[in-house]
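Notes, Module 5: Reading structure tokens.

Key idea: the token line is not a picture. It is a compressed description, and you learn to read it the same way you learned to read a sequence, by spotting repeated patterns. We will look at two proteins. The first is printed below with its tokens.
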Amino acid sequence: MSTHTPRIRPHGLALIEVLVALLLLGLGSLSLLRLQGGLRLGADLSRQQAEAVRLAADDLETLRAGSAAAAPPAVLDGGASPMRLQRRIEASALQRLASVSSRIDWHDRHGQPQTLELASLRLQPQADLAAATLLARSSGGSGGTGRSSGAAPGIASPARLPPGSQDLGDGRQAWRVRPDSTRIWVFDSRSATVTQRCDRPAPPPGTPVRLDAGSLGVCRAVSGLLLSGHVRFATGTDMPGETQAEQPDSVLLPLDLRLTLSSTGHPTPAWECVHDGPDGSSTAGRAIAYHCLVQPVAAASGGLPRWSGRLDLVPLGWLLAEGSATAGQSGRFRVCRYSADRDGNGRIDAAEHPAVYSAVTLPLAGQNFLVVRGSARCPVDTGPWPWPDPLDDSTVAHQP
């Protein structure tokens, strides 16, 4: 009699099967981690690209409006990664058009360089109105900052930094108020507000000095709004007209500026003005550029800090008076200001150069003056002002 012993089948997994399963699980987990990292990088890059598009588009609109020129690269706040803005303006093959572009460079999460560039065309000012480019144009509004030559109606130009401002590479710009001055103003690159007032010994005459964050000298924090423009002279005739308003070409007379504030409680110094005009005698030139730093005061009802007051020219060696004028510093002159209701709202807003400023909360550019003979009337531009040159160069009496 034979006996049969049943075979017992082994239960469980062999070692090789376990290893294969672990390998597949590891590969799957690694793929999921790489996918998650890629999705996160893609999301970050998408956010950075969207921010770069916004910054480039804003700057391109400024360039297309004609209210800004090519400038050294500026560092902008791009959130997690700083972004570098570069402007380019070049002549195009099309008459009266220029090619403009705004380029944004930054580094992504892995340090790889990224670039985005937007390009467009803008109208060039006419050669016979080249002198009028000194007059900033705007669509008006109390929060406006000036007006730019050839700008489309409804486009307000942003506050402009003084020519010669140097990029500090950290979102700020530094500007020595005169080549022979010890004073340096530090601006926020985006808002054009003055954040510091520094003193550093002036360089030897004719010696260019590169400013950086470590060479500003002794600085104190300020919170200043810029008030700037040009002073031009049309003293060659007793009857200045539109041509003299658009292209004044008389010699520059020495002057100073005085801001009389009607608001109170301002920090010290409440204001200071600088200009590049002659110090003691008349001289040839196109215009005197001036810049005033005004420290606003907090509003009693809350809101943005503001200032109110009136800006006047102070003649040095010549008279402000009505009546017959003679050539030279001993003559009698009057001051006109370029001012008009350009947005048609029935009032002269801060950007349109009023006689007295009220509750100014933003930097103002293009606050221009014209000096004429004391016996002359301030010239008025009667128009028309067809697009693309909607230039109303009207002036009104300011002093005396």
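Here is the second protein, with the sequence above and the tokens below, as before.
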Amino acid sequence: MTSPGRSRSSSSSSWTPRERNSLGQWWGGEYTLDEYHQRLHHVRDCRSAVVRDVGHMLHLDQPGQVAQLIEQFLDAA
């Protein structure tokens, strides 16, 4: 089901949630983490992975793990 005025994306996507929820900090309570997860349902072939012990620059904090996730995503495309 899509929201009014929004269509389902036809592109593949990968996102990596953090262990801690900082969504409220960045969006000022505009929407919740649950609402964010609902938005992801509009993206075809959306995948998620948790990378532990990272900050904002996860590719610098855990380069090997992030590279492996990217490779897996691209190999599956």
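Summary for the second protein:
- The chain has a mean pLDDT of 76.
- The beta strands are 13-15, 46-48.
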